[in-house]
Design a protein that fits this description.
- This protein has 19 helices and eleven strands.
- The strands form two sheets. The protein has a six-stranded mixed β-sheet, sandwiched between helices.
- The radius of gyration is 27 Å and the shape is globular.
Length: about 475
């Protein structure tokens, strides 16, 4: 009998894939899986050792993660007590990681510096955000590895105007490539403090760089515990034989389901993990969506989306695999009171809708709902698997992000695609640049046409004068 549940070494993560319904096409659990998995894993490790892909070693190499530099800068800013707010400008991989991490651990963050994230270049949202901030007490952090991301750079220009020139050096920080890019050149020219993203770490894996570590440290989180959780999953991967690695087996099973079930629903039963689903959607979709392959990831939240998507998962097209996440322990489970105790009357009968809940906790209710919905899908033969976190802590989140990253990297490699590039995204950037360049040229031409002192306007004046004289 094959093992279908495993704790990932000493990490706080437990995986249960007993309901994933292993397809006959799956490479997992076959006599050849050991040879195939070792071959693909060695291909992946070669990319790590060549420093081509850096997230895997970032959790054991402080030079790649820049953890010490991130913590040192955060502690100095907290200690200076100059800033009440920090406005982070970034999009995609430069924002989804830290947003999801801080949302998951908001019960552990300090309020000394309030963290804000501005992603989309939406003018209404931008003005609404600045309305509540003071440039004298706000730190602006611009995050873009390339140093040319249009959405981020546009908002940084606005932020620099808002700060005024005298505050650029004291109220601004850049997180970008260590050597190249327009943002790096600008920061160097104006002596703006900078944290660097190792060239080997791609955006959607950058949670293990200053992109994730600096805002976490600035929010008062223990980023060394975060790295510890990731390291514990790494140790599991290193010490476990490839054919027994739970992450590798799940990757193989999901590939085998691809033709029939290409849609994946990420559904955590913890409100704090709602933003993690958004991070996972980018990781899974952008990494694996190539060469006519790839899964369509969707974000959901239990128990909320039992009242929206559950009906589809149970009785709709059988084209989905559901990823459940649950949290084992919380600081306070919050006990549900007895109605009669609240109203001070123990003789009046309690309505059944209240009675069934009395004495339980909100945590028990949420866990019971997860277990019930898992059973619903099981009885309908709808594949799903579960990832259980010991708690919502820095260590658990570090383990979760790292396990997700390893799962993605191995699944892509096993599938024969490169999980670390994004040609579709890059093509979009080219077209955006061309369009912006054309718009700028059109604006210049329009300005020249309307400017009475422009060369075009003077030529028009002379032409009109000559025509008038001829008449």
């Amino acid at each position: 009998m094959s093992i279908t549940a495993a704790r990932l070494g000493s990490s706080p993560l437990m995986l249960d894939w007993s309901h994933i319904q292993r397809s006959a096409k799956s490479q997992a659990g076959t006599p050849s899986s050991k040879t195939l998995f070792e071959e693909k894993w060695n291909q992946l490790k070669a990319r790590y050792s060549k420093k081509e892909v850096g997230f895997y070693d970032a959790v054991t190499d402080a030079g790649i993660s820049q953890i010490e530099e991130s913590v040192r800068l955060a502690e100095s800013l907290i200690g200076a007590m100059k800033f009440k707010d920090a406005l982070f400008l970034g999009i995609g991989g430069s924002s989804l990681g830290p947003i999801s991490l801080l949302n998951a651990l908001k019960h552990k963050t300090s309020e000394q510096i309030r963290i804000h994230f501005q992603e989309n270049p939406d003018p209404t949202d931008w003005k609404e955000t600045l309305k509540h901030l003071n440039p004298e007490t706000t730190l602006v952090v611009c995050v873009t590895k390339s140093g040319t991301t249009f959405e981020t750079m546009a908002q940084y220009l606005l932020a620099l105007e808002w700060l005024t020139f005298s505050r650029w050096k004291s109220h601004s920080i850049c997180i970008t490539d260590p050597k190249k890019g327009d943002l790096k050149a600008f920061a160097t020219e104006h002596e703006i403090p900078t944290l660097t993203i190792d060239p080997s770490i791609g955006g959607r894996f950058s949670i293990f760089s200053p992109v994730g570590l600096f805002p976490a440290a600035l929010a008062g989180l223990n980023v060394r515990e975060f790295i510890l959780g990731a390291t514990q999953v790494r140790e599991y991967v290193e010490k476990t034989s490839t054919e027994k690695n739970a992450l590798f087996q799940i990757g193989a099973d999901l590939i085998a389901h691809f033709e029939k079930r290409p849609i994946h629903v990420c559904m955590p039963y913890a409100t704090g993990l709602k933003s993690y689903s958004s991070w996972f959607v980018q990781l899974w979709g952008e990494s694996l969506g190539k060469d006519l392959k790839g899964f369509t990831p969707l974000a959901a939240l239990g128990a909320v989306d039992q009242h929206s998507i559950l009906q589809l998962l149970r009785d709709g097209p059988d084209d989905k695999v559901t990823f459940f996440l649950s949290v084992e322990k919380v600081p306070d489970e919050v006990k549900i009171p007895h109605l009669n105790r609240i109203r001070g009357n123990w003789t009046t009968p309690t309505p059944p809708a209240f009675q069934i809940l009395e004495g339980h906790t909100l945590h028990e209710l949420l866990r019971t709902e997860y277990q019930a919905i898992s059973l619903v899908l099981t009885r309908r033969n709808r594949p799903h698997f579960s990832l259980h976190l010991e708690d919502l802590s820095e260590r658990s989140m570090g383990a979760l992000y790292f396990a997700s990253s390893v799962l993605t990297a191995f699944t892509g490699t096993l599938w024969g695609i490169n999980p670390f590039d994004q040609p579709g995204v890059e093509e979009g950037k080219i077209y955006i640049k061309e369009s912006l360049t054309q718009l700028s040229q059109d604006r210049k031409n329009s300005d020249a046409h309307n400017d009475d002192n422009s060369a075009v306007a003077r030529l028009r004046t002379y032409a009109n004068r000559d025509r008038s004289e001829d008449e």
